[in-house]
Write a structure and sequence with these properties.
By secondary structure, the protein is α/β, with parallel strands linked by helices. It is built from 23 helices and 32 strands.
């Protein structure tokens, strides 16, 4: 049997947070499968075999571990689930008379039933079936075998059940429409969140901690100092953990040991019960990095790092500061996820300075395992997190990140640093589609956080600008307009305005019902404008209030008043307007409607697959499709190419649609108008209907643009997005589209480059397989 990297092994989490390995069964697994089946209880044997065979171990091992011929369609597939190297479950499919249909069966160790083993295996079996070209699963089960029926119900895919003489035949159609795929994805995301949250409890709320490293070193000393408020036992040991007390019961370990000793330290801590480790040390190369991750996977331990600053959770009694960042840290609304320790220290410093408390903080370093994805999932069920701040340098699974963030952004405003700030860049596209508001710098992140943490979220983009000089008012108005805000009121209160005048003007603007935020811009004047009026005299309202103080030393600070009001104060109109615009955009995401992925009609995926396979059979390394092949591929997705004719000279618009496979971000899509040299908007495929419509609207805008034209372009874009998403062999695709005066869209040319590639489900529940993935 030809075993690829996928079959060689993935690790995933059970509902209780334990880490299991999922991999293909091999002939060499005969004995472990035999032992697994022999240990099954009578009920499990009966449900698996519909009776009590004399030798269930031999029967199951012979079937599951039988060699499979490498040539032709695979007749069967078998997956094992292993915990601590011991088989705890298996799943298999056997192709039937219909080559697109297979019967499936499961078996789970009695002691692990009810922990999500079968459902996890079923998810990976679905992925394996997709790669094997299967379109239907059937399963025959007894009426009393509720667990088997619940596996299908838990997957979230539609099934038909047929009753026949005491047994159910369950039929699952794997060719899902867009709505069914969304339901499947949402169900899988819920299961992953439950499992992930269970595993993170050992990291964020441990009952005991061990610190391993050189006690004289700065890192170990800093961690121990920062753990002084932790109320549980803290154990200390050397770099390899060899001197860890024999009776030590450890849940979380912080390892500051050098790379060559870190894997052994992990194994020792796991033997003492550790379920999570933080590795602060750096300098791991490929060999030592793989050794560290392998030690964690084999031990069922979640890993933060290496090169991690650590984690903070103020919800733990006494506070948990398992990090190198000096505290103390007050409890508050901010969840912070960063990759760089230096960025993490900077953000923590400014949040403390601005009086913004922390709920949870994680700095993940090289993020071999735990990443921002995990913390986003945790925030979904953490009511203490009311504001999310992110700085992510690289992505292991961008599409899963986007799906998780999109769900969270409906409850929590999310801000992320994106220095590129370009719609043509994949990172910017990812944040936009995920509902994350991107800001250009860490400073901008902090400035926006000050507004969202201390003031009500803006309800719209209409701003009232009040100032004490005409110049400050004009500068602030211009900054607001440049930031994309609408200025409904602009008043110069003059330098003569005193505390009552300022208070009355702010109150009038805030209660007028015509504005969504108030900016008060103050220049140093004689007599001086009383700054304390903003905090001491102005009571908290339903719209945000911010100050601009031109001679203020800090970029942003907070003015505090007697009524508990905290007013963010900026030293520049552009900074204040940028912070308000970011806060407005982040708040607006909560009201954004669902954006379903369109389901194009007249799509023949089998015909498209045959075109690709025929090309790769003839040229295994890949090539550009011949014109006839390109036409056949496009027609399989409902796109009919046409030759340009003399009548096309009056075409009003020529567009180029481009799609390609990015190594990190997956399938990407863009569209540009002929002659347009500006930055193009990039979308991650598949894209939602409103994202596609926005892209189409941008490239068809102008005097000649018409709604039917935009609608036809959206349809073509949706078909191309679907094509590049479901066919990973499409390395790149370009088609030229003409929009004629009669409103018809004509595809007149292009090119398609095909390479050998295997589909990887970005939403499949699995942990990262390598330090760099």
């Amino acid at each position: 049997m030809d075993v690829d990297v996928e079959d060689a092994g993935s690790f995933a989490l059970l509902t209780d947070g334990r880490c299991v390995q999922i991999r293909a069964a091999l002939p060499s697994d005969w004995q472990v499968v035999h032992d697994f089946a022999t240990a099954l209880g009578r009920s499990s044997v009966y449900h698996r075999f519909f009776g009590f065979p004399k030798y269930p171990g031999k029967l199951l091992a012979d079937a599951v571990c039988a060699p499979v011929a490498a040539d032709g369609p695979r007749p069967r597939g078998s997956l094992l689930a292993l915990l601590d190297g011991v088989v705890i479950g298996l799943a298999e499919w056997i192709r039937g008379k219909d080559p697109q249909e297979a019967e499936i069966a499961f078996a789970v160790a009695d002691r692990l039933q009810g922990r999500g083993v079968a459902t996890l295996l079923a998810e990976h079996l679905l992925d394996d079936a997709d790669r094997a070209g299967l379109h239907r699963f059937t399963a025959i089960t007894q009426a009393e075998n509720r667990a088997m029926l619940e596996v299908f119900a838990g997957l979230g895919i539609p099934v038909r059940k047929v009753w026949d003489h005491g047994t159910w035949t369950v039929i699952a159609d794997l060719k899902l429409d867009a709505a069914a795929r969304v339901a499947l994805l949402d169900a899988a995301a819920r299961r992953e969140r439950i499992a992930d949250d269970a595993s993170l409890r050992h990291l964020l709320a441990p009952s005991s901690i061990a610190v391993l490293g050189d006690a004289r070193g700065a890192a170990a000393a800093a961690v121990l100092r920062n753990l002084s408020g932790f109320t549980g036992p803290v154990f200390v040991a050397g770099p390899d953990g060899g001197d860890l007390a024999t009776d030590a019961k450890v849940e979380l370990a912080v390892i500051t040991a050098p790379p060559e000793l870190a894997p052994q330290a992990v194994r020792v801590c796991a033997q003492h019960g550790a379920r999570a480790v933080i590795v602060t040390s750096t300098g791991f190369d490929d060999e030592s990095g793989h050794a560290l991750l392998d030690a964690c996977r084999r031990s069922g331990v979640r890993l933060v790092g290496p090169g991690s600053l650590g984690v903070i959770n103020t919800a733990v009694r006494g506070g948990l500061n398992a990090s190198l960042a000096p505290g103390p840290f007050a409890a508050g609304p901010a969840g912070v996820a960063v990759q760089s320790g230096g960025v993490g220290l900077t953000v923590l410093h400014h949040l403390s300075r601005l009086g913004i408390g922390i709920a949870t903080f994680g700095a993940f370093g090289d993020k071999y395992d735990v990443s921002a994805n995990d913390l986003l999932m945790h925030w979904q069920s953490d009511p203490d997190v009311r504001l999310g701040l992110l700085h992510v340098e690289s992505f292991g699974n961008p599409r899963k990140f986007a799906h998780t963030a999109r769900a969270l952004s409906r409850r929590v405003p999310l801000l992320a640093v994106d220095p590129e700030q370009s719609p043509s860049q994949a990172r910017s596209a990812l944040y936009a589609q995920a509902g994350i508001t991107a800001v250009p710098s860490v400073g901008a992140l902090v400035c926006a956080a000050a507004l969202l943490a201390h003031q009500p979220a803006p309800r719209g983009r209409n701003v009232a600008v009040l100032g004490n000089t005409r110049g400050m008012v004009n500068l602030t108005v211009q900054a607001c307009v440049k930031a994309g805000l609408d200025v409904g009121v602009a008043r110069n209160l003059t330098p003569a305005a005193d505390t009552p005048a300022l208070t009355a003007a702010v109150a009038q603007a805030a209660t007028s019902g015509t504005c969504d935020a108030v900016l008060v811009a103050l220049a140093p004047t004689v007599p001086a404008m009383p700054l304390d009026a903003l905090a001491r005299q102005v009571k908290g309202g339903n719209i945000p209030l911010a100050a601009i103080v031109a001679d203020q030393a800090d970029t942003v600070t907070v003015l505090r008043g007697a009524h508990g009001v905290a007013v963010p104060s900026y030293n520049d109109p552009a900074t204040a307007a940028g912070a308000l615009a970011a806060a407005t955009a982040a708040a607006a995401v909560r009201d954004r409607p669902d954006d379903p992925v369109p389901e194009p009609d007249r799509v023949d995926r089998e015909a498209a697959r045959l075109v690709i396979e025929s090309c790769l059979d003839a040229t295994p390394r890949g090539r550009a499709l011949y014109p006839s092949e390109r036409v056949a591929l496009l027609e399989a997705f409902g796109i009919t190419p046409r030759h340009a004719t003399g009548g096309d000279t009056r075409d009003v618009r020529r567009l180029t649609i481009t799609a390609w496979q990015d190594f990190v971000f997956g399938p990407l899509l863009t569209c540009a108008r002929e002659g347009d040299s500006g930055p193009q908007t990039t979308l991650l495929a598949p894209a939602g209907a409103s994202d596609l419509a926005a892209l189409a609207g941008r490239v068809t805008s102008g005097p000649a643009a018409a709604e039917p034209e935009t609608g036809r372009l959206v349809d073509v874009l949706a078909r191309v997005a679907t094509m590049v998403d479901v066919l990973p062999q499409l390395a790149s695709l370009r088609i030229d589209v003409l929009f004629a005066e009669d409103g018809a869209a004509r595809v007149i040319g292009g090119d398609v480059q095909v390479i050998p590639a295997r589909r990887k489900d970005p939403y499949l529940r699995r942990l990262r397989r390598a330090p760099v993935e």
